[in-house]
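Format notes (please read before filing issues)

Several people have asked whether sequences and structure tokens are stored in separate files. They are not. Every record keeps both together, in the order shown below: the sequence lines, then the token lines. Line labels are part of the format and must not be stripped during preprocessing.
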Amino acid sequence: MSQHESDLLAEVLRLPPPVRAQFAHEILASLDGPADTEVEEHWTAEIERRADEVLAGSAELEDADAVHEQLAARLGAIPR
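Then the structure lines:
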């Protein structure tokens, strides 16, 4: 890292946490490349379909605490 880059990093690290978080978000987003609009459209349609099911009462919902317990059990079973 050059001196200029080190100085820039030091300056950014002196900013308030919310501003640093925004910097981090923008920097990480810049590494992802362009969004795939077709995929975005499909996800939007899926989210809307699921929301409609919930609002219509036809979705099969699960208790959040039960889901968290199931996930904790599954994660506990993973060898480390």
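For reference, the curators noted about this record: The first helix runs from residue 3 to 13. The helical segments are 3-13, 17-32, 37-56, 64-76.
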